Amino acid sequence: LSPIVELNVGGELYTTTLSTLKKHPGSKLAEMFTGQPKLRTDSEGRFFIDRPGTYFKYILEYLRSNQVPTQCIQDVYKEALFYNIEPLIKQLEDSPQIFGELMARKQFLARVPSYSENIELMIRIARAEAVASRRSSVIVCVVRTEEDAARCRDALNSLDMDKTSVVKFGPWKAAPSISDLLDCIQMDVEAKGYKISFQPHIAEKGFRFKSHDFFYKFLFTWW
């Protein structure tokens, strides 16, 4: 291989040296250019990598100067994982953005039973109710403790509506509060491209009592 390498990364063009690309021998990026390159070439003969080219400049800058990026941290982290550049991965995981996401938020959500499945269930219910409507709503029951879970079951038993349309989160054993979980739900649904808001749900009909602290209405706005 020539010591000077031209790359086409997702349509973005880069020129660098072979030694830069092979700086970390155990990385996937180094393996791409070890021995016979395991890459296709574009019409101009440049090596083609089918990844987002926008963030490759941060990967390249790190390989050149050990400079850890301070922009687009989440996206650069995904690319560092793909290219398996372990020193960069470890340094990014120490950043507040990645540390907070991996060690705090995700560790909390791992303690909330069926969290990801419930997010998908919410979206399915909202989409089913969106026919010829600008908005659709989903009722969510969030219970922090086993005692609240029992109260939630009692309230659901008094519902006139279809109980399967109420999505239940919890209980969990971790420090974050109900408001923290509600923020997580909104954050993760919005990350999928939906416009969503929530408010406490006060039922005038269907419940034995007028309101409960653990019922919330999530409103999806479609247009």
Automatic annotation (TrEMBL):
One Pfam family matching this protein: BTB_2
InterPro entries: BTB/POZ_dom, KCTD7/14_C, SKP1/BTB/POZ_sf, T1-type_BTB
Domain of life: Eukaryota
SUPFAM superfamilies in alphabetical order: POZ domain
Location of the BTB domain: 3-100
CDD domains: BTB_POZ_KCTD14
One BP annotation, GO: protein homooligomerization
Protein name per Swiss-Prot or TrEMBL: BTB/POZ domain-containing protein KCTD14
Native source species: Mesitornis unicolor (brown roatelo)
